[in-house]
Amino acid sequence: MSTLAALAHSHPMSLRTIESCFGTLYSTFGLRVEGDLVGFAILHLIFEDATLMDICVDPSEQGRGYGQMLLQAVIAHAVHSKVETLFLEVRSSSLAAKHLYSKYDFKESGIRQSYYKTENGNEDAILMELAINR
């Protein structure tokens, strides 16, 4: 997963952080094509809230609907787990991701200024949330 994250993100979570996401409060989703891992998502569940920690698709496989498939699986799991609100953060420059989340009715709820590192400094994180079982 960390190799895939390094391909897909300019500043991915560390291997140690990814490994910490395999516990009782987390659900992980993998997407394989012909046996190869092409995408994954990590969901952190706490009581009635959940946070999409990461969603990642191999850059060579992007544009084929795999991100949408992963997001659908995450939302279905959140519904099944009786989550009331699903939260996430997205880079302000990630137009494709913001479009995908908006398509599934995520609403912008705030900004974390200069949250993500970039090659030239930092960029804002857009906070988004989806009301599910309310």
From TrEMBL:
GO CC, one annotated term: cytoplasm
EC annotation from Swiss-Prot or TrEMBL: 2.3.1.266
Residue ranges annotated for the N-acetyltransferase domain, each copy included: 1-133
Record PROSITE patterns: GNAT
SUPFAM superfamilies according to UniProt: Acyl-CoA N-acyltransferases (Nat) (SSF55729)
Family: Belongs to the acetyltransferase family. RimI subfamily.
Superkingdom of the organism of origin: Bacteria
Cited function: Acetylates the N-terminal alanine of ribosomal protein bS18.
Protein name: [Ribosomal protein bS18]-alanine N-acetyltransferase
Catalytic activity: N-terminal L-alanyl-[ribosomal protein bS18] + acetyl-CoA = N-terminal N(alpha)-acetyl-L-alanyl-[ribosomal protein bS18] + CoA + H(+)
Residue ranges that the Swiss-Prot or TrEMBL entry lists as coiled coil: none
Keywords, comma-separated and alphabetical: Acyltransferase, Cytoplasm, Transferase
GO molecular function, one term: protein-N-terminal-alanine acetyltransferase activity
